[in-house]
Amino acid sequence: MQTINRLDELRKARAALGGGKLALVPTMGALHQGHMALVREARRHAQHVAVSIFVNPRQFGANEDLDAYPRQLAADQALLEAEGVDLLWAPLPAEMYPEGYATNISVTGVSEGLCGAARPGHFDGVATVVCKLFNQVLPDVALFGEKDWQQLAVIRRMARDLDLSRPAVGDILGLPTVREADGLAMSSRNAYLSPTEREQAAALPRAMKEAISTMGRGTPVSAALTDLVSTLVAGGFSSVDYAEVRDADSLQPLTELGAGAARLLVAARIGSTRLIDNMAV
Ligand SMILES: Nc1ncnc2c1ncn2[C@@H]1O[C@H](COP(=O)(O)OP(=O)(O)OP(=O)(O)O)[C@@H](O)[C@H]1O
Ligand SMILES: CC(C)(CO)[C@@H](O)C(=O)[O-]
Ligand code: BAL
């Protein structure tokens, strides 16, 4: 595996791959089995696999965890090497955003509310860096996790609206969330949790499943969401940023379940750690 941190070298390495499709798995590093599932799936869609690791400053708010975000390049390299990844693109911030950088991509609609409201500017940062990653790596296929459901919707909208051809919107694949044995969605930020908080965190998927089954038994959406928030707070969560049911594709808010696919999306904090999750309703 080649680890590359300069764009000119990336372009040469990309050209040297020759024929065959290239799949890209964009990440912020501190890799876990959720990321590795994306890497393994990537191999099923392409002869060559590239992974990017870039903790993107533009998607972090001023008071967020940019400095604390786990960085463990050597361990990540070993995991990717063992999976036979061809290219690791790990640019420094100055390579991604050189002096004078002045362009922003802002996706409206699907980026509004949920994490878009809780983290102003976050999805501009995500859309901008993902567009740059696509242009830098020129992948035929790109893979993302459904754990970041709204992010996936934003990226697909951006690819459709900007007529991206590499990857085309149909080549942006979403994979189901990989979970720990107790149901907690794997996330690099789980490393922030103390042992007690880690135990409490499992209440999130448990309470979400319970809310989904009560809605299935006819409890109104608003009542099920109120119960869900109370359960989380009683279970040790310090606050709930949002708990909403939305149309799974358009992300329009839903106050009652209809014929179309719906999604329950939640963001909640334990201490200062913010966890997100989503499930089909
Ligand atoms: N548990 C998971 N299952 C499947 N995909 C995942 C999982 N966690 C993250 N991903 C996906 O991996 C890619 C890189 O995500 P990222 O590096 O931000 O990891 P993360 O664990 O989500 O970290 P964070 O703590 O920042 O949320 C994204 O497409 C994300 O959706
Ligand atoms: C897609 C991404 C790599 C862009 O920085 C990031 O938001 C993430 O890891 O989900
Ligand atoms: N996993 C999404 C990246 C972020 O939280 O900034």
From TrEMBL:
Protein's cellular compartments: Cytoplasm
Residues that hold beta-alanine according to the record: Q59
InterPro entries reported in the protein's UniProt record: Pantoate_ligase (IPR003721), Pantoate_ligase_C (IPR042176), Rossmann-like_a/b/a_fold (IPR014729)
Main location: cytoplasm
Major enzyme class: ligase
Binding, (R)-pantoate: Q59, Q151
Sorted UniProt keywords: ATP-binding, Cytoplasm, Ligase, Nucleotide-binding, Pantothenate biosynthesis
Pathway field: Cofactor biosynthesis; (R)-pantothenate biosynthesis; (R)-pantothenate from (R)-pantoate and beta-alanine: step 1/1
GO terms assigned for molecular function: pantoate-beta-alanine ligase activity
Coiled-coil region: none
Lineage: superkingdom: Bacteria
Active site per UniProt: H35
EC number(s) from the headed UniProt entry: 6.3.2.1
Catalytic activity: (R)-pantoate + beta-alanine + ATP = (R)-pantothenate + AMP + diphosphate + H(+)
Family: Belongs to the pantothenate synthetase family.
HAMAP family: PanC
Cross-referenced NCBIfam families: panC
Subunit structure: Homodimer.
Extra remark: The reaction proceeds by a bi uni uni bi ping pong mechanism.
Protein name: Pantothenate synthetase
Organism: Novosphingobium tardum
